[in-house]
Design goal:
With 502 residues, this protein is an alpha/beta fold. It has two domains: 400 residues, Alkaline Phosphatase, subunit A, CATH 3.40.720.10; 68 residues, Arylsulfatase, C-terminal domain. 29% of the residues lie in helices and 13% in strands. It contains 16 helices and eleven strands. Strands 3-4-1-5-6-2-7 form a seven-stranded mixed β-sheet, sandwiched between helices. It has a four-stranded antiparallel β-sheet with strand order 8-9-10-11, covered by helices on one side. The chain starts with a strand and ends in a 26-residue tail after the last helix. About 6% of the residues have low confidence.
Amino acid sequence: MNFVIILTDTQCKWMVGAYGQPVCDTPNLDRLAGEGVRFERAYTASPICGPARGALFSGQYPQCNGAWANHMAPHRRVPLMGDIFRKLGYRAALTGKWHLDGTDDAGSGVPGGGFEPDWWYEQANCLAELPDDIRALYNQQTTPADLRQAGFGIEHVYGHRVTDRALDFLGRVDDDPSGKRSAASTTSASSGQAGSGQATGEPSPCEPSNPFVLVVSYDEPHDPWMAPVEYWEKFQPGDIPGRPNYCPPMDGKSDLQQMQAQETAAYHDNPTWEQLVAKRLKFFGCNSYIDSEIGRVTAAVDALHGDDTMIIYTSDHGDQLGSHGLHDKGPQMYEESTNIPFIVRGPGVPGGAVSQALLSHLDILPTMLDLAGEEIPESLHGVSQAPVLADPTAAVREHVFVSYNLNEPGEQERGGLYPIRCVSNERYKLAVNLFDRDEFYDLEADPYELTNLIDSPETAEARDRMHDALLEEMARTRDPMWNVHWEDRPWRPAKHFFFAGG
């Protein structure tokens, strides 16, 4: 079995039409959901780029694999997806955003993760190839008029060029099992020439190949939201329905969240939802644009490898976008940031199914190994979701866990070091904010997480059970940031402060 993983950046679940907002215009993802299983309760391992990606590619929590903040690389001893599957005899390629080499989100351009080098294409690679005036558009606030004046076209969009590399791999994966493309078959996606399956040509069916893993990792719809100009002009502020928890009262919330909400309101002069959306129309336009690139990938899979390929689509995390008065992502565990879109289509997966099973990005590697008939190492922190893919009414998890530590080293944004450990089950969510007020929500009665029940006697028993599950998971995975204050909380004192060996 082959695997194609399509990963977007900062794509809220509610910005995918299949999840209930068709106005966002994502027909290709909607079609994928109609052909596979759509997960409603899938969660990132961390609501920030680098740690989320490190967890996905390592199968270990960010605080354990080493990439526990942006611009931090996983420990060298931690095998990543490319390493694992190439050792098992798979071809393995990644094109697009990596964000795990310890530099910045544009990357160094140096291949990593065990993936084959020929299709590696970080934003640093893309920017180095663009003309100076086009490259400048990626680094400044710009307008549709600026794009037109510079002659900015789809051939300059990072996501389009990432897709070109993906189609090149899908069309040429059989050229040489060693991972090297022949000189005669090499095309230059970077120069705008068409690879197999590109819009200017039809893909040609391949002979049966060695199994492969392909990761298509888009930076979009993350800012700077670069997209063809028509997508920047696609939406008006009134097109996007408002969020029920947009800028609500913050009584009972953590001190840091209250500070963030106050600063946001002051900085943006208390914008209405329509005023906020007016400043983010590029975001929604780019969100719709990247769906068209995803459609190019899925079409090529169908044409070339459709009978034996599992497509896994997700996003690294979401965005608050004004929910709870907060913007961006980081030190908060609200559904807008943590509950991500997740769709799987492939052999044995029923079409048009919806699963309420809890799922974590940590489960991707175990699931792939299980489907490939391989042993799942004990070092992986997730579980296989293969039973759920066969029967979407099944469930393999009782709890799912999310963590946050720091945005990036040396930075004071988002409160600096602000460790959070969060656990959710089918109804409740507990977030332990180590230095701040904790949060407990009844997601069944309060799906928009407006009322913090951390001190409520009516839900104390359920809260304490969730706390026990969280502490057990931290112990099981040997969380290196453990200290007794994860256990000793104002609402539940620790049983013991010190433990002595006998």
